[in-house]
UniProtKB/TrEMBL annotation:
The keyword Cell membrane does not apply. Part of the Tol-Pal system, which plays a role in outer membrane invagination during cell division and is important for maintaining outer membrane integrity. This is Peptidoglycan-associated lipoprotein. It is found in: Cell outer membrane. NCBIfam families: Pal_lipo. The gene is pal.
């Protein structure tokens, strides 16, 4: 190796080292909730609950429960029905911008007139329970379908039991709660 190659190689390495970019400092991330012992700060009331999902007719139908069943030929509320209606009343009292229509239904046995009257008495029983739990009577209407809108169409007791029901249908009136 020639004597001049070592200084030239060293000079080239120093030149390359001088052209190298310095490493970038790590990116600063600002977290406004970091180091606060209370966690996230409350920023105000969101309409309809934490994310608004509870204030929907779908939540009422799927989570609260919109249907109660009755024994054959009866309009008395069972313990299970009262539990569902208590949840309905709580929800309706919380979300006052919703109105309800209680639809009374009956099984296919019996005359049309008898089943219309039975459906009306079932809807009225649900309405009276909701009003007794604090829901304004002006927000609840009743409607009887009798045996005209069965949820199941067949001729056995299991189907009859599903059709002996009252369904609470809620709609948003548009007024803020």
């Amino acid at each position: 190796m020639k004597a001049w190659t070592k200084p030239v190689t060293a000079a080239c390495l120093l030149g390359l080292a001088a052209c190298a970019q310095p490493p970038e400092p790590p990116q600063q991330i600002y977290d406004p909730y970091a180091n606060t012992s209370a966690g996230a700060l409350y920023q105000g009331d969101l309409a309809g609950g934490a994310l608004g999902i509870e204030a929907t007719a779908q939540y009422f139908r799927n989570t609260v429960g919109d249907t109660v069943l009755f024994p054959s030929g009866q309009t008395t509320l069972t313990a299970e029905a009262r539990n569902v209606l208590a949840r309905q009343a709580e929800w309706l009292n919380k979300y006052t911008n919703f109105n309800a229509v209680v639809q009374g239904h009956a099984e296919e046995t019996g005359t049309r007139e008898y089943n219309l009257a039975l459906g009306a008495r079932r809807a009225s029983a649900v309405q009276e329970y909701l009003v007794a739990k604090g829901v304004s009577a002006g927000r609840i209407r009743t409607l009887s379908f009798g045996k005209e809108r069965p949820v199941e169409t067949c001729s056995d007791e299991a189907c009859y039991a599903k059709n002996r029901r009252a369904v609470t249908v809620v709609t948003d009136s548009g007024a803020a709660s």
